[in-house]
Amino acid sequence: MSSSLTPERRQATTTSRKGRRLLTLLMALLSLILSSLANPLPIEGRSFPGGGSIANARPARPAAAHPGPLSRPVQVAAPAQAQAQAETTPADDTTNTNTNPLLPEQKYFHEPGYTEELSHYDTRYFTTPVPYDPHIVHLRHLIRSYLLMTSSRSLTTWLAHGTLLGWYWNGAIMPWDYDLDVQVSNSTLGEMAREWNGTTFDYVYTLSGQEEKEGLGKQGEVHVKKYLLDVNPYWAQRTRLEGLNVIDARWIDMENGMYVDITGLSEDREQKGTPGGRGTGVWSDKNFHGYGTRQIWPLRKTEFEGVEAWVPWDVEGVLKEEYGGRSLTGETWAGHHFDHGRKEWVKTELVKKTS
Question: What sequence ranges are listed for the domain LicD/FKTN/FKRP nucleotidyltransferase (predicted)?
Answer without folding.
Answer: 152-269
